[in-house]
Design goal:
Glutaredoxin, alpha+beta, 5 helices, 4-stranded mixed sheet
Length: about 140
Amino acid sequence: MTITIYHNPKCGTSRNTLAMIRASGEEPEVIEYLKTPPGRDKLVELIAATGLSVREVLRKKGTPYEELGLDDPKWTDDQLIDFMVEHPILMNRPIVVTPLGTVLSRPSEKVLEVLPNADNVGTFTKEDGEIVGKSEPNA
């Protein structure tokens, strides 16, 4: 089974998502997209696979989003994708691709929706101490 994560190791959400994938028993292909950007065609494919709009995949915090004026509705989806290709930091992360689907894993537990062995994760404690995942039902 192939699972791919477009990952930024400096991002807590991305680290939590990667840890959940590994807790499920899978070792994903890890693509550090800031070092190895996906390219325009792959980016278009990933966005389409998530079912999200281009604007929903744009990252605002810690990026040149405001400086570039990307909140202006004048920008077309194609133009926004061009900005993401030029500035990979504008791509929100992590994006996870599995045989069950593709998600922008924000919050990190969203990855559980597409993990084939999600039940193996059980409960998971995120870096900030929040506990997510399946818990035992009340007896």
